[in-house]
Design brief:
Helices cover 35% and strands 11% of the residues. With 523 residues, it is of the alpha/beta class. Helix 2 crosses helix 4 and helix 12 runs antiparallel to helix 13.
């Protein structure tokens, strides 16, 4: 399959490009890449810059990535691709192609420009192309709905985020992709608007987009398939809403991430055969996925920071706490804390860097080792710690030590396990609503879901190594999300965290791409 025969991909609500990365990285049995990202649309500036940089990377074949790309990852060519990298004359053609592919536009506001861009990207003979993407999910997520419930004037019927899927639907109706893949949070299954479950309406609209939009072809129909069971479509195959939930940890991803993913196939194709489903695979644990990355210390916020200040802060602040932990009946935890504190300071740790300054010998998980690695580059970027309050450092120390010695099944402490001296000053700490506000990503399990909340604080994402007293870095979160090591996230650290937390794991998307390819290869 040559370049001209590649299946075109249009990626809407692309974020940093997790879905697109999985499709573009997919190789057929013949070693060819059958999918090509023709266009990706994202409204947020930093995520768009990340998309644009990755689009540039994809302009080159395997083994042909220019040294200048890696120079950028090392901070030698500005902070964004357009600062210097895209201005290099011998790379101008690829830079322009990347900027055509990754566009900063907003669905619902820039629809005219978006439709023109899609028309240009597809060309006169688009063939059997694929639409991918996930409308923003804040209005569907359980956290978002809880937040909205606290707003007396909030009405779901007036929240346009509940209807962003209609922008996706309009593109389906207007441009008739052969296949679409739509992703969203699990909360969409129970979300209600006007007293009705919105998911049922979404399914019906996606099956008959022409009727749903009111002005399209009423004969245009899609069959909606599950990626985890082959019972057929939701209308006539006995599927339930939960059949559309894909649990990433069942498919080789080192993270318990549950998302609703719909596979839509145009009816003139879907009658030919039933798509295959994702093949279950064991997933590596957190330690196997991130242990090779350089060890780092956290930073001190709200006071002078430096390695010795950090060591002194932990030593001085932990003495009484360790005694309190022992008095609370957690002798093993207290002993482990004491041994850890004694060792802290014997090895000089820095805070890392957003730019690649160190190297790694690669992920230890054999199944994913090749997926993450770059054959010519072993650098580590986006691996920089954040600062924490002194009191949180000791809480992280306590939590990580607790995870090391706790009974099986208790790999992170609840609020009732904390001695009073470690309890944070939160009004809801003792209510039970946030009993696991501090959560260790245990070394011997898959991680919990990496969410955009990691940008707010690190309490849910504590590193399993107590001697580092910190939360996960962007690179560690990206590893658990299965982004390759040469995938760079542009923007400040908060923006990088948000990008990673909102993305679809590329390794999961890669497997979805195989299902889609099997649908289209004989059409």
């Amino acid at each position: 399959m040559g370049m001209s025969e590649q299946i075109k991909i249009i990626d809407l609500f692309a974020g940093p490009g997790g879905l697109g990365e999985g499709f573009s990285a997919f190789e057929s049995a013949e070693g060819e890449h059958p999918f090509r990202i023709a266009l990706s649309i994202e409204k947020e500036s930093s995520a768009h810059k990340t998309l644009e940089l990755r689009a540039f990377y994809r302009q080159f074949g395997k083994g042909e990535i220019p040294q200048e790309y890696y120079d950028f990852l090392q901070g030698r060519l500005g902070k964004t691709p357009k600062d210097e990298l895209f201005r290099l004359s011998h790379l101008r053609r690829q830079s322009r192609a990347a900027s055509r592919e990754a566009r900063q536009l907003t669905l619902g506001e820039d629809n005219h420009d978006i439709e023109n861009a899609i028309r240009d990207a597809l060309g006169k003979t688009p063939g059997n192309w694929v639409l991918i993407g996930g409308p923003p999910c804040q209005a569907y997520s359980l956290v978002g709905r809880a937040r909205n419930a606290g707003i007396s004037s909030y009405e779901p019927e007036n929240d346009q985020r509940n209807f962003l899927y209609r922008e996706y639907l309009n593109i389906i109706e207007r441009f008739r992709p052969a296949v679409f893949v739509m992703e969203n949070v699990k909360g969409i299954l129970s979300a209600r608007v006007g007293g009705n479950r919105i998911f049922s309406q979404i399914l019906e609209d996606l099956r008959r987009p022409g009727l749903a939009t009111g002005g399209g072809d009423p004969k245009l129909e899609y069959q909606i398939f599950s990626l985890v069971t082959n019972r057929g479509s939701g209308s006539d195959g006995g599927l339930t809403a939960s059949d559309f939930i894909v649990r990433a940890e069942n498919f080789g991803v080192p993270q318990a991430r549950h998302r609703v993913i719909l596979l839509g196939v145009r009816s003139d194709i879907s009658w030919l055969f039933t798509p295959t489903v994702l093949l279950p695979a064991s997933s590596p644990r957190v330690r196997e996925t991130i242990a090779d990355l350089p060890r780092l210390r956290s930073g001190l916020s709200r006071e002078p920071d430096g390695f010795q200040q950090w060591v002194n802060a932990i030593h001085s602040s932990s003495r009484k706490i360790i005694s309190d932990v022992r008095s609370a009946g957690l002798k093993e935890v207290a002993d482990y804390m004491a041994r850890t504190v004694e060792a802290i300071g014997s090895e000089h740790l820095d805070r890392g860097s957003v730019w690649a300054t160190t190297e790694t010998d690669g992920v230890r998980a054999e199944g994913l080792r090749e997926w993450f690695r770059d054959p010519v580059w072993t650098g580590v970027s986006n691996h920089e710690t954040r600062g924490h309050m002194r009191s949180d450092l000791i809480r992280y120390l306590f939590c990580a030590c607790f995870a090391r010695v706790a009974p099986e099944g208790r790999l992170t402490p609840r609020s009732t396990d904390f001695p009073p001296a470690l309890a944070p000053d939160h009004s809801n700490w003792h209510t039970g609503k946030f009993a696991d506000r501090f959560r260790v990503q245990a070394a011997c399990r898959q991680s919990s879901t990496i969410t955009s909340h990691i940008s707010k604080d690190g309490h849910y994402f504590i590193h399993y190594d107590p001697a580092q007293c910190r939360s996960l870095t962007v690179r560690e979160a990206a590893r658990l999300q299965t982004f390759p090591d040469n995938y760079f996230f542009v923007g400040n650290r908060t923006q990088q965290y948000v990008q990673v937390g909102n993305a679809v794991p590329p390794y999961l998307a890669h497997q979805i791409a195989e299902v889609v390819f099997k649908v289209l290869e004989n059409c």
